[in-house]
Amino acid sequence: MLLLLGLCLALPLCAGSLEEAGTWGDTSEQVGLRVPRQVRLLQRLKTKPLMTEFSVKSTIISRYAFTTVSCRMLNRASKDQEVTFQMQIPAAAFITNFTMLIGNQVYQGEITERDEKPGGQVKEKRNKTAEDNGEKGTEMFRASVVLPSKDKAAFFLSYEELLQRRLGKYEHVVSVRPQQLVGRLTVEVNVLERSGIAELEVLRLQNSRRKGSGSGEDDSGPPPSTVIHHNETFAHVVFKPSVVQQAKIAQNGILGDFIVRYDVSREQSIGDIQVLNGYFVHYFAPRDLPPLPKNVVFVLDSSASMVGAKLRQTKDALFTILHDLRPQDHFNIIGFSNRIKVWKDHLVSVTPNNVRDGKVYIHHMSPSGGTDINGALQTGIALLHDSVARHDLEDRSVSLIVFLTDGKPTVGETHTPKILNNTREAARGRVCIFTVGIGDDVDFRLLEKLSLENCGFTRHVHEDEDAGAQLIGFYDEIRTPLLSDIRVDYPPDAVEQVTRTLFPNYFNGSEIIVAGKLADRAKDRLHVEVTASNSKKFVVLKKDVPVEPRWGGSGGPGGPGPQGGGQEDPNPLERLWSYLTLKELQSSWLQSDQEQERDRLRRKAQALAVAGRFLTPFTSMKLRPAPQAHTPEATYGLAGMSAAMGPEMVMQSLQGTHLQPGPALKKPYDPRIKISKTSVLGFRRKERKNTKNLPLAQFLG
């Protein structure tokens, strides 16, 4: 009986299985749906655009870095596919060229003036790129092209930057993020410093935001396969990992920053002055001076949005910072939300008891309410002014506000221009404001302008496991003021178009840089005078400096002279002067409230940027087909790239065996291209909206 019942139950199941199997045999789509997941993954990987080469070459001459990135891609799919090249670049850098090679056709980037927007305003848009990518101090350049099946594309991006000295070192950071294993991956960095190289080191690959993608098993020292050669004035660093070495670092491709850190030798107290072909640069970084007393008010956001890790890590960082204050310093603490809470009604001296009480006050801060930025700044500035008026502070001291927030103004005065105006009028140039934006929701644009207008600088601290260390690192940059009211003078008839020469403070480990043109190249000496105040006396430094160029050729020490095709090596000091001048024009444009003055600054910056091929918020880049010619440089549209690559003696040109024409396209087509870039002022820009589906002819206009 049981056997009969089992047979009855089995027959419908077998019939159902046969029917289902028959259905599968008739429907090819359903067969595809049953492909194992591992097989589908392998199919996608097989058709993913293949990066065959990723190469970065940097040349640093007198702290000024020329960098060129080259990337080659292959569409392995059996159909047209979008190929994307993207590169993180330092936020302070200017892009100077972009060239794209598709088959045997070259598309060359051209820097032009950006059209003025209605109402006389240059278009501004908040940048989210840095926050979205989780990287601080970087911006993203992207270029996409729809590439025919089995065809190749090559991308070449050049940018320049002036390295800033922080905590006694220069850092050159190269983003290495191919996001796949690459057959030929190379990073080459050349450093040329006439005054001598000191303490050069290569750090391990850095990327704190993405676990398992930064460095391999060995967490110390340079990445595997890194080779370093250097002598007194020149260093050559190469990172060239094989595919196996890349896989050991990260299975899906390297994702990190390659960092070269160094300092230069310093001898003269007046600084290092270099001259080349009518341009000069003056580096001033004195040392072995007694620190100035500082008067610092810590203004801490304790609104409801600071709840959790942000407030906890900020408190821990401030505990460390309070212990680091010197006995001659004075300090106070303000917590603000919708109410302003002041620890003491005046600045107090640094004693063990005051430090202990300050830590207790910070410990008991609890997050609640809104964010009254204007009221907090006004209170902090008033505290400093009152202490100075009562002669509680030393005459030769520096007054600072360290302002930390994670949000936007929501209580009291919330209109940004009014907050900026109120702060500027209250500070009157006597109080420097250093701002820190915590997390991704902060109004970084407001903090940037607050610092720019009040002799400070701003930093963005990401909300992650090392936020406290980032805050301490920020404070370390301003912990030791050595000089105040610095003035650098040259004879008016000897120089012209000189960059900024007045500086409110000089902090230990930083550097003051002045650049300009020589009005009379026939003179063999340049008189330099630096005046400043330190903790003990008024300092005056004077020196007559020889101005005959110590560098041969036209591009650097022993430079080779003109390149093929009549292209001369760029004068690195001229490029540095242009870079500094553009930065100062942009800063002045940001700070100005007068429409006529902003227009004048914009036009001046535009003219300089177009002449020097710098992509700035006032210029734009358009891709145009390069004219066909017989010479290699012209054929590949690289004649203008040499200006962004540095002297030939240090960085070889892209022309030659590394830039061979690709195969002719299988069929005539108009590539669809889109380009987006984050601007140097923190605004995200797209060269043309919705260009993804536009043919190249429409994109170029």
TrEMBL record:
It is found in: Secreted. InterPro entries: ITIH (IPR050934), VIT (IPR013694), VWF_A (IPR002035), vWFA_dom_sf (IPR036465). It comes from the Eukaryota. CDD domains: vWA_interalpha_trypsin_inhibitor. Transmembrane segments: none annotated. Belongs to the ITIH family. Residues 1-16 form the signal peptide. Residues 295-478 form the VWFA domain. Its main location: secreted. One of its GO terms (molecular function) is serine-type endopeptidase inhibitor activity. Keywords: Glycoprotein, Protease inhibitor, Secreted, Serine protease inhibitor, Signal. Residues 112-136, 208-227, 548-572 are annotated as: Disordered. One of its GO terms (cellular component) is extracellular region. It holds the Pfam family VWA. SMART domains: VIT, VWA. This is Inter-alpha-trypsin inhibitor heavy chain H5. Residues 552-567 have a biased composition (Gly residues). GO terms for biological process: acute-phase response. Residues 35-161 form the VIT domain. Gene3D superfamilies: von Willebrand factor, type A domain. PROSITE patterns: VIT, VWFA.
